[in-house]
Design goal:
There is one protein chain. The chain is mainly alpha-helical and 273 residues long. It folds into two domains: 139 residues, Alpha/alpha barrel (Glycosyltransferase), CATH 1.50.10; 125 residues, no CATH class. It is 53% helix and 4% strand. The chain is built from ten helices and four strands. A hairpin with a 4-residue loop joins strand 2 and strand 3. The longest helix is centred in the middle third of the chain and has 18 residues. The protein is globular, with a radius of gyration of 19 Å.
Length: 273
């Protein structure tokens, strides 16, 4: 990855957070339609039902769906246009049944990717107080409480990926846990969130390049794992973007006096340098 690639990380973060660019004006003329709105309208036109995202043939609880739908919610907050809120809500109501069970999600797979769509539920629960959303959020919190871990407490990426931590896994779960902890008063999550972020940094950071390897296998058993470090052989720019976005999102909800918060700020500054 070049220095230019590293600088691009700074632009990945706002794209993930709001799904587009901030509106701009042209010399006092009428404000133009923003790229974020154009992108959102294009997605809605291509996928009239949000579960169709990624050309899915039937509804499924997935991290990419969660990412797009969360971006729609951020655009709703930015523009005040309820079209994006209603579109996002269709996804939640398609996948969460009357009892609060998340359809298509296999709890025992302990797939950390399944936590990412849960980020959309905070807005729906705050706005409607529908208990289904809280039950679903509690299920995801319970999953992470029971998630298999490395010896130092790092979350495995999935049950079928034993002993492995991936950079993208930090984005999938850590922002969710920090928001859950703040919203519902579960202060036990904060130290855990800091540990996930700092642990994978210690294990995957390459001082020679200033970059982070995509994954780390504590057991060194995977064919891709370096027998000395356990790291994957490659840097993956998107996974570094996931990690950078995760750190920014976590800080929105991590209390200011949390031990290790300064370390996260240092990591962000390093990524943006």
């Amino acid at each position: 990855m070049t220095n230019m690639d590293k600088k691009m990380i700074k632009w990945i973060i706002p794209l993930l957070l709001i799904g587009g660019f901030i509106s701009c004006t042209n010399g006092g003329k009428e404000e133009k339609e923003t790229w974020s709105v154009k992108m959102a309208r294009s997605e809605i036109q291509r996928f009239p039902e949000p579960w169709m995202i990624e050309k899915a043939k039937k509804p499924r609880w997935g991290y990419t769906h969660g990412l797009v739908v969360k971006s729609m919610l951020e655009l709703w907050k930015h523009t005040g246009d309820s079209t994006y809120y209603e579109y996002a809500k269709i996804y939640a109501d398609s996948l969460i049944d009357e009892s609060g069970r998340i359809r298509t999600m296999n709890y025992l797979s302990f797939n950390i990717d399944n936590v990412n769509p849960g980020k959309i539920l905070f807005d729906f629960y705050e706005r409607t107080r529908d208990s289904r959303y809280k039950i679903a959020m509690d299920t995801l919190r319970k999953q992470m409480a029971e998630q298999p871990r490395t010896r130092e407490g790092g979350f495995w990426h999935k049950q079928r990926y034993p002993h492995q931590m991936w950079l993208d896994g930090i984005f999938m779960a850590s922002p969710y846990l920090s928001q859950y902890g703040t919203v519902f008063g579960d202060t036990t999550v904060f130290a855990d969130v800091v540990n996930q972020i700092t642990l994978i940094a210690r294990k995957t950071y390459d001082p020679a390049t200033g970059l982070y390897y995509h994954g780390w296998d504590e057991s060194r058993e995977q064919a891709w794992a370096d027998k000395e470090t356990g790291c994957s052989p490659n840097f993956w720019s998107r996974s570094i973007g996931w990690y950078a976005a995760a750190l920014v999102d976590v800080l929105d909800y991590l209390p200011g006096k949390t031990a290790g918060r300064d370390t996260i700020l240092t990591l962000i500054n390093g990524l943006a340098a």
